[in-house]
Amino acid sequence: MATRNRTPLERVEEAIILSVLIAIVVVTVQPILNLLAISLSDPARVPGMSGMAITPDGFSVDIWKLLANHPAVQRGLMNSLFITSVGTVLNVTCTALMAWALSRKRLPFRRTLFVLILATIVFEPGIIPDYFVMRRLGLLDTYSAVIIYKMVNAWYLIILIRFFEEVPEELIEAAKLDGANAFQTFWRVVVPLAKPALATITLFYVVYHWNEFLRPMIYFNDQDMWPLQVVLRQFVVVGDKAAIVGLQAMNNYEGASQIDFKAFRAGMILFTILPVLAIYPLILRYFTKGTMSGALK
Amino acid sequence: MTKLDHKSSAAGGNGNVPNPDLLTAEIASDQWPGDEFDTPGARFRDGVREWWPYYLMLAPGLIYFALFHYLPVWEAKLAFEDLRIIGPNVWVGLKHFAQLFASPAFFEVLMNTLIISAMKIAFVFPLPIILALLLNEVRSGRFRRGVQSVIYLPHFLSWVVIAGIFIAALSPADGVINDMRDMIGLERRSFMTESGSIRWVLVWSEAWRSTGWDSLLYFAAIMSIDPALYEAAEMDGASRWQKMRYITLPGIVPTIATLFILNVGLFLNAGFDQVFNLSNDAIRDKIDIIDTYVYRLGITGGQFSLATAAGLFKGVVGMTLMLGAHFLSKRLTGRGVW
């Protein structure tokens, strides 16, 4: 668009719009930067630190060392990584296979299956019946319960079905003529075409598993099975300070006794966010594209 | 080939000149494999031959939906039973529902749910629309993308993390909000434990988390507006405000309508994860919603039948709202919820 000279009024308008947007960015990142600053500060100076600070007061990585050596955090990390990786592989495989079959317009009983799946979005009987199903199936206190209970997300399934419906029929026919069976066609023709869509739902599922905290709390009695989110919840939300104090007695390296709850909380929150931050650039690349093309259609 | 042979032998076996009518009758009744494509048996067999690989692909997913979405519906019958440790449960009909509707606690959580949902729709729902309109006014693409790449982040953080962030930021002693209040001479307040402010904490934490990400949908809708409309308006000397009012806003009204209706459909989901992590003993009665009530009653309190009844009530009313929302949206905008 050709830009003509802007009037003074327009300049003022523009300045206001830009400042509002910058303010939104500040509100979004300041609380996170503050936690980062606290976690990297000299532990002795943390108690007096302002909530407005975004630069560390002194510098120390004691908190991060403490976190990395904390047995509950280590176990939580391993549990989270295990649940997220196994869960995501299972999610994506089952969702993709199911979506491909359901995207075939001539599939017998296609409409019936659609209605049955949509019905699960519309009506949810609640967490108590879910719990009793897990008990009946003998899955309580197993990782399977948390991995499997949302094996196929109906919304993501629908997104993938819509995508697969767009795969050109000629390609499928050509593969059939070359003697490929249904599975070979799926693996060699459909999956390569659907890579962006599959990447999108993979990231959806990763974030989903990583952020899950409720089901592990309900299904696991054993605290050693807790993923990181539940450990974080125990420390930060429930405020279980005993766990941290007990640890400080165990870790008798210099400075540990000075580490207070505030610094530990800041570090722990960031520790839990780190993997999300690590895949955030990928999310920006795939989610925004995928969601936008879906919305534009 | 076998088809032809079979037919001719059948015709020849009679030793007569085939009467055309008889011949057709004979063929129609013939069930020989491959002889006719239109018999139910043959159609079924061909269907199986063509589609069994696809049903194999569907199998894990279908088993999953049966076990973890339909079996719970069966288990929900617990709402009509008294739980027995030994022996089968006892059918008690609507006893637990009667108890539920008679209890002041349930009425309270129902009201809380409605109030919190209404506050969120009133104060959070408009924000992403405004944000998308603002982003659309930014001339520099780099600045806009920079802003966008930051504001989506909170959407991907769990409510445990966000609760941690808000507990820290709202801390009376050294949280950023109170440090700022202190600077301009206001007294420090404990927003997390005051019954007058905790619902606003829910509203603002929801806004913090979802405004950025939700603006993406509206922004995409704005991007799909025909640029020729803006060019024509500029020729006519339309101001920035007029273009926003008469082109951009009307262009995203269908998106606004669909998302608004979807929000109404989810009205009873006032946000379990959020309330669960931001709640504390001081203000629980102000923000306890149906879902947290079900959790506390059932998982913590062991009153499984009563909790199931509350959950089932929410499920049925929620289903009604969702279906109503879907068909209303389809009628108004031509686009359903799914």
UniProtKB/TrEMBL annotation, chain A:
Tell me which CDD domains the record gives: TM_PBP2
Annotated GO CC locations: plasma membrane
Instruction: Report the InterPro entries cross-referenced here.
Output: MetI-like, MetI-like_sf
- Output the GO biological process annotations, alphabetical, semicolon-separated: transmembrane transport
* Keywords for the protein's UniProt record, in alphabetical order: Cell membrane, Membrane, Transmembrane, Transmembrane helix, Transport
Q: How does it sit in the membrane?
A: Multi-pass membrane protein
Q: Where are the transmembrane segments?
A: 12-33, 81-101, 113-134, 146-164, 185-208, 263-287
What subcellular compartments does it reside in? Cell membrane
Q: Does the keyword RNA-binding apply?
A: no
Predominant location category: membrane
Segments forming domain ABC transmembrane type-1: 77-283
UniProt similarity note: Belongs to the binding-protein-dependent transport system permease family.
Recorded protein name is: Carbohydrate ABC transporter permease
Its taxonomic placement starts with: Bacteria, Pseudomonadati, Pseudomonadota, Alphaproteobacteria, Rhodobacterales
